[in-house]
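Case study B.
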Amino acid sequence: MKRSVLQQVICHVLLIAGLFIVVLPMLYMVSTSLKPNGALYQFPPKFLPSPDEITLENYAYVLGAGKFYINFLNSVFVSVISVVLAALIASALAFVIARFRFPGRRALFMFIVLTMIIPGLTLIVPQYQLAVKLHLINKLSGLIPFYVAWTIPYSTFMIKGFIDGIPKDLDEAIYMDGGSVFTVFTHVAIPLAKPGIASVSIFNFLTCWEEFPWANTVINDNMKRTMPIAISGFFGRHQFTQWGYVFALSVISLLPVLIIFICCQKFFVSGLTTGSVKG
Amino acid sequence: MKYSGKSKAQVVLLLLPGLLVFAVFTLYPIVKLFVMSFLQWDFSHALEHPFAGLSNYMAVLGDKYFRTAFVNSLVYTAVTVPGQMILGFLVALLLNKVSHLKITYRVLYYLPVITSWVVASLIFRYVFNTEGMLNYVLVNVLHLSSANIHWLDTRWGGMWVAMLLGIWKGIGWNMVVFLAALQTVPQDLYEAADMDGAGAWQRLIHVTLPSIRGTILFALVMLTIGGFNVYTSIEMITGGGPAHQTDVILTWMYYKAFSTGEFGYAAALSFIVTIVLAVLASLQFKLMQQKEV
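Model:
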């Protein structure tokens, strides 16, 4: 018994030591966002602002005069629509692949797995030309079809796993009662695969919310930028960077993700571990 | 089971949106990429694209900048994948032992994972600034160095900062995945090992690791793909500099496509990367299936 108390203490000490390193950069981000901009280049640099120094001027600027709430709303718009569309399309695909035999089914599934392996960015050149052709350049809504196309392979793969676990008797019962394929989809597949669809959607939201290279390539207009592009726009590689603004906007961009993460803990864990714990 | 005409129509309707999105936004670009890789397609051939045979591929393979970028991607993957797996696994082992505050630890360790690559990169960039916090601590507090270190001005300095970021950001994911795996290890295996007088180390080697090998391989495949996908952190931290010394495959590809306009070169490069990754991933999948038998 004594030994296990000691063991608990050692584990906690090690975990807290590790946490110190993991969380320190995040704390530094928050503390920097609360310092007045003039203090950022002072010497010696301080980890925490002194109590009388603490200010919200960086937040006031990015949300007020800087009008970066527009970029925040842009990100919400693009992410939410992409996530909803991807969930619908991927659920339908997953349902059909899981439940029906049709010519090309295997090829379709292979294609989905393959697109999960290819780095998304390798297609950026032809996708850019496609976006030009379809007049999707420099349009917020132009981001959506590409985000949907990138997120449905993984989503389909995961949701199919959930639908595979639903007993087929449930389908049969609906068909016996004269129900159609649509009825089975909406009354059996979607309700029972909901946890899977939810966890996939959380990940898709994160993906769209933080997507950088594509949005950075196709959006030029300041007012149409999403959050990651707006944040990176503050950062001048060769000139003076206003770190206070950078990190105030960073903290704001993290809030929705943090709220979703804390509220949806169980979906996060189930989404991560499905497929990983087998064998 | 036979399907009626109506059922068939409904199945097609359910498939259609997905197939359409794939066809237009994924399949067409893949085919286009393949075609482009054989054409002379750059600023001097903006309108007409004569057939170029394998010359784009030759140009990529003979390019010393590509070789540097390829080696950088390999090193990045070889360092960050085991780095984050080992650290994440250690955290999971500890978490599996403690009886209090489990969820609090899990949430806090996971914070870097949900932080976007842009934000995380900028934090590291700020910490590793030549006039930044880290140099101040090393030079003025700990006196480990006599002058500020220019982390980002050398190839391996810049690469190390990006690799530290990759490991830091990945620990939480590995922790969650390994913690779930550890909870599936049958308790009686440990009891049997205890009966045989096995120590903690032997239990780890002979019970824990073999029981979770499926998860280890799963993580290995996912993270290897992720390692070759690295783009944003390099772009934000070093921008590939100095003189393309820290470019990885994707930042180099992006530079060739959008800065010098050599679309044919970029397409051939993309195809080479895709093939390398597909081979690597299928090898790892094979390995995974073999081990499971």
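The two ends of chain B are 33 Å apart (CA to CA). The remaining cases will be described in the next quarterly update.
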